[in-house]
Design brief:
Largest sheet: 7 strands, mixed
Number of strands: 21
Number of helices: 8
Radius of gyration: 22 Å
Order of helices and strands: EHEEHEEEEEEHEHEHEEEEEEEHEEEHH
Amino acid sequence: MSDTHNIVILGGSYAGLGVAHGLLKALPGLKTQTGKSYKVTMITNSTHFWFSVGAPRAMFMPYPKDIMDSFIPIEKGFKQYSSELFDFVHAEITGVETDKKTVLYKLKNEKEEVAPTTNNISFDSLVIATGSKSPSPLYSYQGSHVPTLDAYKDIQSRLSSVKSIMIVGGGTAGTETAGEIGHLHGKQTSSPKDITILSGHERLLKGLRPSIGQRAQEFLQGMGVKVEHNLQLTDSNDLGNGTTKVILSDGSTRTVDMLLVATGRKPASSYLPSSLLDDQGRVVCDAYTRVPSLKNVWVTGDMAQNSPGGIMYINFAVPVTVGNIVAELGGKGKVKEYKPLTTKETQFVPVGPNYGVGAAFGWWIPSAVVRMVKGKTMFFPNAMKTVMGTA
């Protein structure tokens, strides 16, 4: 029987990386305090971290310089730690046996092929951080980073030749995507295209006040993007000739050259026992990010029941999770509640590189500020920092 306390982290995106680095930096002090040994094992479907924050821009062009700037090898960030402290497992997670305290998984090779044999690993502490998933690889992992990389390549190879583009979804991702394509191929460019965004609701950016959504719409329309409301995509069919037939909620059909679906995000929790989930498929947790029905099991990121989603939540929730794990393992200090930085609307939404809308702590933010803070770089300087644990 090993004397090492095994901490298993499920997921290797923003939340999983943040927890892993936070714990690994704390382990030497924890070992001195308790006299015990600890090891962190990360199990993730993807060998590469995908900087999804920058997707609305990077899907259309190699950005900042190369298409692979969006996809960074995860193991690169963990070479700074001893192999006695950290292990990386590239695998498809197939289950969690809470009574046996084991995670079930199938290893994947460099071609992303899944082995037929199921393996298991025992845990003393478990952190669930597998995030969320949407229908399109442009807006979420589809198993690994490879489908997303392939989707980027497909778009970039076809973009110059297509004449019509439809973006489905008027949230942050859809609005930012429409802004980027409007900047590249709007009515004021040398290669204008027929660009349409379907908000799916009565306005864009439903999570922000109506005037902010209206301002985003005005920016898009100024670029020549058509903005349509109260229409949802009900189905689509690839016609095999480079076009797609879309069926809309009013019964109408259209044919477009490029369809980008930025809706339908759900928790990536299908491998977990239903007893741990709420009716939305998120993991039930308390204010301390613990799973209350189990000992030494934690959840953070989009999987957590108390998560509003987004990078801002992760940036503030991850340190709470790390601190609470260290406090409980060390037997010293008090666990802390996760409390949002603010409950007031706070969101920055670039509309192309030159415009933007948003709010912070309930205050309206001018376009120029959104442009400087996010729109100018889409936070890409943080991509490598996230992998290295220095963001």
